[in-house]
Amino acid sequence: MIPGVAPSMPAVHHGLPPGPRAHRTLQTARWIARPARFMEDAARRYGDMFTLRITNEGTWVFVSHPDAVKQVFTGDPRLLHAGEANVVLMPVLGSHSVLLLDDDAHMAQRKLMLPSFHGERMRGYEQTMADVAAREIERWPAGVPVRAWPTMQAITLEVIMRTVFGVRDTERVERLGEVLRASLAWLAEPRRMGQLALLGARRIAERGTLRAALDPTDALIYEEIRARRDAPDLAERDDVLSLLLQARHDDGSAMSDKELRDELMTLLVAGHETSATALAWALEALTHHPAALERLRDEVDAGEDAYLDAVIKETLRLRPVLALVLRRLIEPMEIGGRMLPAGVNVAPCIYLMHRRPDVYDEPRAFRPERFLEQPPGTYTWIPFGGGVRRCLGASFAQFEMKVVLRELVSRLDMRAARAEPERRVRRAIVFAPHRGGEVVISRRVAAAEKLAA
Ligand code: HEM
Description:
The protein has 19 helices and 13 strands. By secondary structure, the protein is an alpha+beta fold. The chain is globular and about 60 Å long. The N and C termini lie far apart (58 Å). Protoporphyrin IX containing FE binds at residues 82, 98-99, 110, 164, 266-267, 270-271, 274-275, 278, 321-322, 325, 383-386, 389-393, 396-397.
């Protein structure tokens, strides 16, 4: 139980919790157009658990009480499927993707991948991340509004190519970057998700447009995998692909080229836009809170990390990139004092959890200090989901944010381009700042130059 949070309902009720009565189509329209408002209105009216009905997605039961979220994250994964809910991504990610699997197949794939994402490993990526960030940031013009988001996208894409795919040669990074950007842009077209949902995974996979968008990317990825298999320095390399090439299934077999391709695509799609968006939100929040930005800069200049960590945690709390995670119930299950029927999607709601006044003082305020006073709770700070499906890249993403923000504040003075904070807009499934984190920069006089002056 969380101190200060009243326990969830003691008696067990049967059936779905209440929710808006509007027709499914109207609920879907509100969910697409104003998701945050829709969730907040429903929580105000119906409390910790409510039902929304979304076209093509079935029934979603939102849960935001810490006890209920804990039940979902610690519940039996054989009865709470996450992979099924992501099946629309199958044509792109492939049938081996850890995001799409459930049960034993999921655990087997996750076990192979986990060691490559262990927090300790991240230090080896620091210099690459810092160099990529520094180069991109140096291109920003001073004195005029700049949207941070495209630059953050460029940084996170190149970081994935270099640290996950392990591409070192700059010409190859450029070639791969070009085809990956084209595939990702194809995927990000607004009509695409609808098409995938409507036509279904198999029919889409057979259509020429998908193959035309993905084939050049696949060709380069397979080329990279084959070349790396034969690399004489494979055992010394620390990029994720090289580690996966050396990983072994329980029966001693290595991952096939197709498995490796599917996991590389998964890491790219799961890790690129999410991290870029979180970085854009961090800049949006910091430039609208100059005192926090000043404190961050002073601490970074002094070589301290604690406040930087707190800024990242607070950004992911107040501006989570994803609003919720989903688990499909395979059998009826009691959650939050309700016996829910099989077939519904239970949705631990990141957005609502992070705004609970019984968990966070002044939940709407950007106050990084809160995480210096108290560490984040496993079931109350959930930007990366939880349990056996918790984001594999959580340490990677936070480490990358740290390195990139450090480069930004030590190189630039920044202010918000406009006084009013940026609204949240939906980009495919992520919540992004509507002007992309718009800032005005000037270059800082380096400490050494200051001393010399
Ligand atoms: C700020 C950046 C990121 C955020 C907010 C984020 C968030 C999430 C969330 C909410 C989930 C679903 C968890 C659940 O269902 O309980 C997830 C899954 C996943 N994420 Fe991330 N993610 C980020 C960055 C990354 C990065 C950088 C990578 C890899 C390089 C990555 C790889 C994955 C993978 C592979 C999964 C699937 C795990 C599984 O199903 O077992 N993510 N992420």
